[in-house]
Specification:
- The structure holds two protein chains of two kinds.
- Chain A is mainly alpha-helical.
- Chain A has a domain of 208 residues: Orthogonal Bundle (MetI-like fold).
- Chain A has eleven helices and eight strands.
- In chain A, helix 2 packs across helix 7, helix 5 runs antiparallel to helix 6 and helix 8 runs antiparallel to helix 9.
- The model of chain A has no long low-confidence stretch (mean pLDDT 87).
- Chain B has 14 helices and 13 strands.
- In chain B, strands 1, 5, 6, 7, 8, 9, 10, 11, 12 and 13 form a ten-stranded mixed sheet that branches. Chain B has a three-stranded antiparallel sheet with strand order 2-3-4.
- Chain B is globular and about 65 Å long.
- The N and C termini of chain B lie far apart (76 Å).
- Chain B has two domains: 203 residues, D-Maltodextrin-Binding Protein, domain 2; 100 residues, 3-Layer(aba) Sandwich (D-Maltodextrin-Binding Protein, domain 2).
- Chain B is an alpha/beta fold.
- The chains are: A mainly alpha, B alpha/beta.
């Protein structure tokens, strides 16, 4: 292959040959390691007399799960139990993403506040939370915060709609009726209409110098309609206190509350730092330019600085979201039945750690790849478009 | 140019230990199909343990009376004494044991992966574990049943009263499954709260997160002693399952399994022969062929298994017989004062029965 070169470079001294050869060698080594490990696994499984396979997932699970967002009976197959665990994980992760974004961005922006107390509070919060291991914080939330709630007999009653006790937190929640879904669809439609109306209003004001008054009136009307639907269309169910138990509404176990609180408070501290870094990355001239136009500092942040800071924030935010998703597997420590917890029980009862752990890995991998994909799309959207 | 040569050399150097690692996998752990044990067997866990000079034993480490670590780091309990008996049989030294604390989820993986030689960790013998999980159960060392612990002032007297209540349970245990079965039979709705760590489960129960705590009765009694106010808690008068607890080894290693199995039987047989730590020397001099054979003074029972011939005598000298172990850890001489009940000898109406040593 290299013999035809006019300089007659010997093969072993040819850079092009080595470029390929080294890659081949590395690939061979990696392949060999993988083969050795698989062979070793096979041999050990054979020695135990077990066969690798996923058929066991069809057997009835036979254990109970505390939190069942989707229906689950104890004689359902393991697959169903794992699905319940997955839904539980997704509940924590989904709620975590929303809350941690809000709290993190607020804490991050607070560190630039002109209010001394707010600035220091943000600093103390970030430094305190970032430097304590998450597992300790989870135990703190579980044993020191939520365990201090009164027992179920003398629960805390907040205005007759919110109940707090050791059994969990009960809040009003829309009932699962067709009317509810219709109202939700209507709300979605209103949100889209408001968005376009706002865009159009801005456009009219900028391009044609109109006052924007009629659009504002339309917006207000839409807002009122939305409020009306929110209060009456969603058929809210208020939890009913029957003395010993609470029925109806949304019942969150204190395990869920503790894992959610722990994850949100912990991850938000990191997001606050990312937000701070992103805002600091915006050149000082932008602040000065915006102020020279007479904008107040809140408006400077909202209209000029923050949109530019997003370019720096989003990649960091992505990895924090992924951390939150992975950290949710610590739920097992405080008894919340997430996918890891259910899988743990499954591999114990079936004696198939290899297969079950492959499943857990796949589950977290897929979740995080989806998160990454969405965040990368978002990242592309906020990049500076060069004209 | 020289950079490539350097890189090549580097990959070679990196590859050398890797191939060495590859060789170790075909080391002593991989055996051909082990047929029958006895003579002509390939290498077994028994050889590995002997070579190492100490036993690595998986225990719980948190249940008083079964396996518990005191302030000075000493292990004690019924489960621990089984480990010590095996070490005494092999090395004439009950302290040649390294203990590993394993929670209920890690135990089988640790055993299958060869991290520990055996489990002595109040593990329930079930057909599923014995067959599809790939374990081998030595004779039962404690016959137990599942119970339910509640607060005395809760007014709960039966499982039916648990309707709508929360029950704390440890994951990866038979307890978890039995609880579900029992409640399903009785058609009782309840909320399980599942913890990986027993400590977390009992803490949650003590804090009032759950109205009930379920586990093997012996464990509940032992654990109750560690709760803030032990007298505030009672066990319901209900037995939810059979829980035969005993030591465990891995499948397909007869030589090692036999060692653990006959060590356990030796403890029971010694009690049947009424051989105790105190009267061992005196028993040796008695002219009883059965006892002489048992203690290795005649015949070759120990040698045929690949153990020292006097292995039973060593066990009794260092650890005592089963009755002594029981009394020391759970019975009269302990804080629990558990009656022997089913765990008495078959000659006294219990279930402890050893096949003959001949």
């Amino acid at each position: 292959m290299t013999r035809e070169t006019p300089q007659k470079v010997p093969l072993l001294r040819d850079e092009r040959f080595w470029r390929i050869a080294i890659q081949v060698i590395v690939l061979a080594i990696v392949g060999a390691i993988a083969l050795i490990l698989i062979a070793n696994l096979n041999q050990n499984l054979r020695q135990q007399g077990t066969v690798f396979g996923f058929n066991f997932l069809r057997n009835p699970a036979g254990f109970s799960i505390g939190d069942t967002p989707i229906s689950y009976r104890t004689n359902d197959p393991y697959l169903r139990a794992l699905a319940v665990g997955l839904v539980n994980s997704l509940r924590v992760i989904g709620a975590g993403f929303i809350l941690t974004t809000i709290l993190g961005v607020m804490a991050g922006i607070a560190s630039f506040s002109e209010n001394w107390l707010l600035r220091k509070l943000s600093l103390v919060y970030v430094e305190l939370v970032r430097n304590i291991p998450l597992l300790l914080q989870l135990f703190f939330w579980y044993f020191a915060v939520f365990f201090q709630l009164p027992p179920v007999q003398d629960k805390l009653n907040v205005g007759g709609v919110l109940f707090l006790s050791k059994r969990g937190v009960a809040l009003p929640w829309p009932a699962n009726l067709s009317a509810t879904w219709l109202s939700l669809a209507a709300l979605g439609a209103i949100a889209i209409a408001v968005f376009f109306l706002w865009q159009w209003r801005t456009h009219m004001m900028v391009e044609q110098g109109t006052s924007g008054q009629p659009q504002l009136i339309a917006l207000a009307a839409l807002g009122l309609t939305a409020l009306f639907i929110l209060s009456f269309g969603l058929s809210w169910q208020v939890p009913q206190d029957t003395g010993t138990t609470i029925r109806g509404g949304l019942q969150l176990s204190i395990e869920f509350a503790a894992i959610l609180a722990g994850l949100v408070v912990y991850t938000s501290a990191f997001i606050a730092e990312i937000v701070r870094a992103g805002i600091q990355a915006v050149p000082k001239g932008q602040w000065e330019a915006a102020r020279s136009l007479g904008l107040k500092s809140g408006l400077v942040m909202r209209l000029v600085v923050f949109p530019q800071a997003l370019r720096v924030i989003i990649p960091g935010l992505n990895s924090q979201y992924m951390n939150l998703a992975k950290n949710s597997s610590l739920a097992i420590a405080i008894g919340y039945p997430d996918i890891y917890s259910v899988a743990n029980t499954t591999y114990n009862q079936t004696g198939r750690p290899v297969e079950v752990f492959l499943l857990i890995m796949a589950a977290y991998l897929v979740i995080n790849l989806i998160v990454s994909l969405l965040m990368n799309k978002l990242n592309q959207a906020v990049q500076l478009t060069e004209r | 140019m020289s950079r490539w040569r350097f890189l090549f050399a580097a990959t070679l150097i990196a590859a050398v230990p890797l191939t060495a690692c590859g060789d170790t996998t075909s080391g002593p752990t991989t055996t051909a199909q082990n047929v029958g044990g006895g003579s002509g067997r390939t290498s077994s866990r028994l050889d590995i343990v002997k070579q190492r000079g100490k036993l690595i034993c998986g225990v719980d480490g948190k249940i008083p009376g079964f396996s518990f670590v005191d302030e000075s780091g000493n292990y004690s309990g019924l489960d621990v004494d089984i480990c010590r008996a095996v070490a005494a049989a092999l090395f004439d030294d009950p302290n040649a044991v390294e203990y590993r604390n394993l929670d209920s989820t890690a135990r089988f993986t640790a055993l299958a992966g060869g991290e520990v030689d055996m489990l002595s960790r109040n593990t329930t013998w079930t057909i599923n574990r014995d067959t599809s999980v790939g374990l081998e159960f030595a004779p039962t060392t404690f016959f137990d049943g599942q119970g339910m612990m509640v607060r005395q002032d809760s007014g709960i007297t039966s499982l039916e009263d648990m309707a709508g209540k929360s029950i704390c349970v440890e994951t990866g245990t038979t307890t978890e499954l039995n609880l579900t079965d029992q409640m399903r039979q009785r058609n009782i709705e309840f909320e399980p709260v599942v913890y990986q760590e027993a400590d977390a489960a009992y803490a949650a129960y003590a804090e009032g997160r759950c109205q009930g705590m379920t586990s093997d009765k012996s464990q509940l009694i032992a654990r109750r002693s560690t709760l803030p106010n032990p007298d505030d808690h009672v066990l319901l008068d209900v037995t939810m399952s059979k829980e035969p607890l005993g030591p465990v080894t891995v499948n397909n290693d007869s030589a090692w399994y036999d060692t653990v199995k006959w060590t356990t039987f030796a403890l029971i047989q010694a009690e049947e022969f009424e051989i105790t730590q105190a009267n061992l020397e005196q028993k040796k001099s008695e002219d009883n062929p059965e006892i002489k054979r048992f203690l290795g003074l005649e015949g070759s029972l120990g040698q045929d298994m690949g153990l020292p011939n006097d292995f039973a005598a060593r066990i009794v000298r260092h650890v005592g017989n089963y009755g002594e172990i029981y009394d020391r850890n759970l019975g009269e001489k302990s804080q629990f004062k558990l009656p022997r009940g089913q765990n008495d000898l078959w000659t006294k109406g219990g279930l402890m029965y050893s096949p003959p040593f001949r």
